[in-house]
Amino acid sequence: MRPGTFQWMKSVNKSIILNKIRTDSPISRAQIAKDTKLTPPTVSSNVKELIEQGIVIESKLGESQGGRKPTMLLINHRAFYVIGVDAGPAKIDCILVDLTGSIIQRSSSKLTVPITNEQYLTILKDCIHECMQSTPMIMGEIIGIGVAMHGVVEVETGTSLVAPILGLTNIPIKKELEKEFMLSVKVENDARAMALGESWFGNQNKVDSMLAVNIGRGVGAGLVIDGKLYHGAQDLAGEVGHMTIDLHGEVCECGNRGCLQTFITGPAIVRRAQKTIAQESSMKQQLTGEKMYEHAIGGHEEFAALFKETGKIIGIGLTNLIHIINPEKIVLGGGVTKSRSLILPEIVKTIEKRALTPQAKQTKVVITTLGEDSTLLGAVSLLLVDLFEPV
Asked: Please, which pLDDT band fits residue 8 given cuts at 50, 70 and 90?
């Protein structure tokens, strides 16, 4: 589907009706009119067009309220498809999904540094091509590509301004992908995309304000307020990994000292562990976050204590964010959260100890239910928002 060709489907009323069907289906035309305050003729005419366009289908008759049984409406989840991309920094993952987020196809490509912008874009394009070409029968029904990119992203132009772990700047992702694939492309910071994905697919849509924090090789966050991502004045909102924790700490990839992510990322946890292991230990050279966690739950007291300390540090960072943002809920994702049994209790205890008010102390902190696909589904949601939400 070419850029903008699904925009003719959209109007404020259509989007309101589509979103109502998405969230409350099966639902009747009369119920849509009642809940949205749109007139019954407006609902009927828009539903008729949506059925003709194939995105809405009719189902079995609903319960009678005294008259004829109403025909119920559902989203046709196989009407359109979306490509979602989790772009780096260690690899590029792509998925092809239907409108429910059900994954139909995957592809993946590893990244090695140093790398140039041109090399990065070539790998990105090849990975997307591989994902798309495996299902050629639905190529014409793909509405667009969503890209979740680490670092600082200029959302309007879809440009990666700074990708610190890759050492790249000013990558014209949107421009290059739209030229290559002739599809609508949305590019967003990976943590913000994850936040939107949690709001869309993680059953968080009834939460007025939600903070999602991604803790992996880096640390980023996204804030969703009333279903909308908050970007800040220059698309910098959510860079919580660069919150200074220790003025005299180690140098971060951003160039500053003592950033939060120098303490709590996977590589940071390994570096901290290596300092505590005897110089001659063979374990020191083979250490990974995953192996550390296995040893910790197997009885290695030093590693267990280190994970618990990491939980406390995360809790301090989250308490700072609670005091600044005051979200209703915090969702944690990323590879570090695989050690949830050791870090999550410490996070909760630290917030309960440090937060200013009784209500703030009870801020709900959970681990994502979307697992390792949370950022990928966040990338998908960038396109679904365009389709389902009012312009």
From this structure: very low
